[in-house]
Write a structure and sequence with these properties.
Number of strands: 5
Low-confidence stretches: 1-19, 480-485
Shape: globular
Radius of gyration: 28 Å
Oligomer: single chain
């Protein structure tokens, strides 16, 4: 008889061994061991790839979007002592300053890291570390929030798979790459909070979470406005379907949305600005309807009860009508959208040229396919889950997610920049398809079939769907690749920094170049591409689009001292296309200079061109 090599008290438990062996025979997707460690590993892998990919752009803060550069300028101003409620840019549109609609909330993590690291690293390195670190940390917050939101519904194994799909979604990851410090990533994080509140088992706590997340999203950006209506409708329909269970969640969602919005409006904007009417961000036109709807809902619920479908719907319709009437009576101009006050010239030349703000049918075929194909795959997965789910509560949750996804997908069709929120929800549908197929593939008898079909599942990931979309478009079209000349590809920062050889002056530059001038030089500018500075934006476009003699009058009125123009800048190319006789095309086409301009050669200016305004000759007797 064989003896154990150790005392019987320490012998392995036969039941434990059998359970472990049985568990190990299950497909990995069914095993949820060390789930949070796997989430952390996925995040770390993605972060390392991003750091390596963008490493060369860190030392000189080579931002790929002008909004990131201006965000850092806003943080610099704040750290230097600018007031909490004042987010204007003092070196824009002098002497008035450049008004901004951005939230101070997004500045906090960047400013906090800079202040904390400055004693150790110095100003410059602290800025670099903060701008590099904040986006990956935002991604970590999103991964953890997504895990916490859907774990109860899907279990840890499928939740880890959902996070794995998240870190392959290019539309989402581009908003969280190092140096991408603008507000778009935080919008997606806030959307996860709304999802988590809807799926939280305790309806009261879920309502508070969802409402507060929605309010935060709205204060980060006014782009959240359509989601208030869409997601609010989902919460309302859940209440209609299950009144006893979902009323506490729905009314707390609406109450938290109204209360948190009011608190954030006062806390972020201050009493004076909080009373102003703005259609591009949270202000009274949007707060008052939310506040007015809550008592209508409560009163209707108490008076009519929930006994019939009609009694549940009437308060919802009355609340919606109250909110709409409040908005129309208080600020009817906001019905036309946040850009209704733009000058027609600015709208046609600037706004319509921002492709991320345009609908899918105005994008190139490749971009449209990358939006549609992964999105349709995700929607198909969610529909499949609804049709096959046997558990009533889980089917109810799937229907709710599907409703949110359909609304978000519709918004992304209308506005390209909204694709991140839509694809986040689509990940859940992608996860369902893969989780449904993999166990069947793992059970196939031949290794060749198992390996080939498992590899083919990668085509169902967001990355795989985008690859399929690009391949299809490339096969059927012959569209040349669009190469941007705007930012790091041409080391534009070096050309901008050459302007520091000039004395501090008012310089007229293309709108999208303005943030770089503010960030890297001591000069002032007329405008950036931010719509509240309507007058300054209009004048910059007029200067570059009008013939030299007409442009001269505007330059003289603003007392501009220099004009700086990079010939390969995309915005300059747009001016040349729409206005062949305009000043922009004149300056970069080697035509004879107007008499009121002279070329200034600067060391390190590269292809860019700098021109000094020649003062008019003194009048006799003056």
């Amino acid at each position: 008889m064989n003896q154990l090599p150790f005392p019987h008290a320490f012998a392995p438990d036969a039941k434990f061994l059998s359970a472990t062996a049985l568990d190990m025979r299950r497909p990995w997707i069914e095993r949820g061991h060390n789930a949070l460690w796997l989430v952390a590993a996925l995040w770390l892998e993605c972060t390392i790839v991003w750091l390596v990919w963008h490493w060369g752009s860190f030392a000189h803060l080579e931002f790929r979007d002008p909004d990131d550069a201006l965000r850092l300028m806003q943080v610099r101003n704040f750290v230097a002592g600018q007031g909490w409620f004042d987010v204007s840019q003092p070196r824009v549109n002098p002497p008035f300053g450049g008004p901004m609609h951005w939230s101070r909330l997004v500045d906090l993590p960047i400013a906090g890291l800079i202040v904390a690291l400055r004693p150790l690293l110095g100003d410059r390195l602290a800025e670099i570390v903060a701008c590099v670190a904040v986006p990956p940390l935002t991604l970590l917050a999103m991964c953890l929030a997504l895990y916490a939101s859907v774990k109860r519904l899907f279990g840890p194994h499928r939740t880890v798979l959902t996070v794995a799909l998240l870190v392959t979604s290019f539309p989402i990851l581009t908003q969280m790459a190092p140096l991408r410090i603008d507000h778009h990533a935080w919008q997606i994080v806030a959307s996860v909070g709304v999802l988590g509140g809807m799926l939280t088992l305790d309806p009261r706590r879920g309502g508070w979470i969802a409402g507060a997340s929605m309010a935060l999203w709205l204060h980060i950006s006014g782009e959240a406005l359509p989601y208030i209506a869409l997601y609010g409708a989902v919460f309302a329909l859940r209440y209609v379907a299950r009144p006893a269970e979902e009323w506490p969640r729905f009314i707390r969602f609406m109450g938290a949305l109204a209360l948190a919005s009011a608190a954030l409006l006062l806390g972020v904007k201050g009493w004076t600005v909080a009373q102003e009417i703005h259609c591009d961000s949270m202000s009274p036109p949007y707060l008052l309807p939310l506040v007015a709807m809550v008592p209508v809902l409560i009163a209707g619920h108490r008076l009519l009860g929930t006994a019939t479908l009609l009694r549940r719907i009437i308060p919802l319709g009355a609340a919606a009508a109250t909110g709409a009437l409040t908005l129309v009576s208080y600020a009817p101009q906001c019905l036309h959208g946040p850009f209704q006050a733009l000058d027609p010239l600015v709208y046609n030349v600037w706004y319509l040229a921002i492709m991320e703000g345009q609908p899918i049918w105005k994008q190139d075929l490749s971009t449209g396919a990358i939006i549609l194909i992964p999105g349709l795959l995700g929607l198909g997965g969610m529909i499949g889950a609804v049709l096959t789910e046997k558990d009533a509560d889980k089917r109810f949750a799937w229907l709710s997610i599907l409703g949110m996804a359909l609304g978000a997908f519709g918004v992304s069709i209308m506005v390209l920049r909204a694709v991140g929120v839509a694809h986040l929800l689509m990940l859940i549908g992608n996860m369902w398809i893969i989780a449904r197929l993999y166990p069947r593939i793992a059970a196939l008898p031949t290794m060749a079939a198992r390996v080939s079909l498992t590899v083919s599942l990668s085509l169902l990931t967001p990355f795989g769907g985008a690859a399929i979309a690009s391949a299809i478009v490339a096969h059927f079209t012959d569209t040349p690749e669009d190469i941007s000349h705007d930012r790091a590809s041409t080391h534009l920062y070096q050309q901008v920094e050459a302007l520091n050889a000039l004395p501090p002056s008012l310089i007229l530059v293309p709108l999208d170049l303005g943030p770089e001038i503010l960030l890297r030089t001591h000069h002032r500018i007329v405008a950036t591409g931010h719509h509240r500075n309507i007058v300054g934006m209009t004048e910059v476009i007029r200067v570059f689009a009008q013939p030299p003699e007409q442009a001269r009058k505007i330059v003289a009125a603003y007392k501009v001292r220099y004009i700086f123009i990079p010939p390969n800048f995309n915005e300059v190319g747009h001016y040349r296309k729409i206005a062949p006789q305009g000043l922009a095309n004149w300056l970069v086409s080697d035509k004879p200079l107007p008499t009121w301009l002279e070329r200034v050669h600067l060391k390190g200016e590269g292809a860019s061109r700098t021109y000094r305004i020649v003062p008019p000759p003194a009048q006799p007797g003056v």
